[in-house]
Design brief:
- By secondary structure, this protein is of the alpha/beta class.
- The protein has an 8-stranded mixed beta sheet, sandwiched between helices. A 4-stranded antiparallel beta sheet has the order 2-1-4-5, covered by helices on one side.
- Helix 5 packs across helix 7 and helix 7 packs parallel to helix 8.
- The model has no long low-confidence stretch (mean pLDDT 87).
Length: 330
Amino acid sequence: MPDLLLDVQGLETEFKTPDGIVHAVNGVSFGLGEGETLGVVGESGCGKSVTMLSVLGLIPNPPGKVTAGKAFFFGQDLLKMSKEEIRHVRGAQISMVFQDPMTSLNPVLTIGRQLTEPLILHLGMTKRQAETRAAELLGMVGIPNAAERLGDYPHQYSGGMRQRVMIAMALSCNPQILIADEPTTALDVTIQAQIIELVKRLRDELGMSIVWITHDLGVVAGIAQRVMVMYGGFIIEEADVKDLYANPQHPYTISLLGSLPRVDETERHKLTSLEGMPPILYQKPNACPFAPRCKFVIEHCWKENPPLLDIEPGHRAACWVDPETGRSRV
C-alpha cells in the first residue's frame, strides 16, 4: 500500500499474570494510509485495544511488555522512542479516544482545564488562546453554548456529550491519526449514530486517518473503508469493507456476520451463534487458534497456524480451508 502513514510490523505484546504469561498480541502487521479509516473488529480479549496501546507506548510495564515489532510513523519507530519522545507524539500527532469517557476525564478538573492543557503543552498557546480554541473545539463537536460550558465538570455532561468532549480533546492539536477505542459502546443507538456521523464529518474536513476499534461490525460498515478482523492476538482476515461483507473468507468472520440481523433481505434467516470461548493464550499456538470452534476444521489446522493468504487483490485470510467449497487451500 503506497503512502503509509503508520506501518506496524511483527508486533508482539505479552502480560505477566499469576497464572503465567499471556501472549496478547502475536506478530501483528498492518498499515494505515493517509486519509484512510481502518476498522479493527473482534471479540473482547482478541488484542484490538492492546495492539493500539502498544503502538502508543501506553502498555503498563509491568505487567505488560512489547517484546517484538516495529511501528514506523514518518520514518521513526515509535516502539524505540523514549518516554519523552513518545509523549510529544501522543496527543499532538496521534490521538486516542478511549472507551469510557467518564473514567477518561478527570472528575475534579473542569472541562476547560482538561481541554486547554494539551494546547498549552503541545502547541505553546497562552491560557487565553487555549480557552478560545477550546470553546471552538466544543462548538465543532456540537456542544451548544460552548464558551459557557468550559467551567463545567464532567458529571454535568451527559454520556454522549462527554464522548464529544473526548473527541474534541483528541482533535485539539490537529493529529494526523485518530485512534477511537470503542467510543460508542456505552451510548444508546441514536447517540452512537450522531458520534459516528460527527467523526466522519471531521475526518473529511480535517483529512485525518482513523483507526476505529470495535466489536460491532454494523458500526464498521458505516465508517470504515478497510477492515482488519482479529482473533487470539492474530489478524485472521483483512479486506476492503464491501468485499469483507460480500465475500468473507475466514470461518470466524462468517460467524460474526451471521450473528448480525439484516435489513436488506426479503426472507427471514436465523441468526447464528458461535459456540465456545476465545482462547487464553498462555502459550503461543502452533495450531490455528480458531480450530476448537471451527466447523470447517481439517487435520492440517491442528498442525500449523496459517499465515495470511492472498485470496484476491487487497483481501487476505488466515485459513487453510476455503469455506465456500470446504476444500483445503494448501
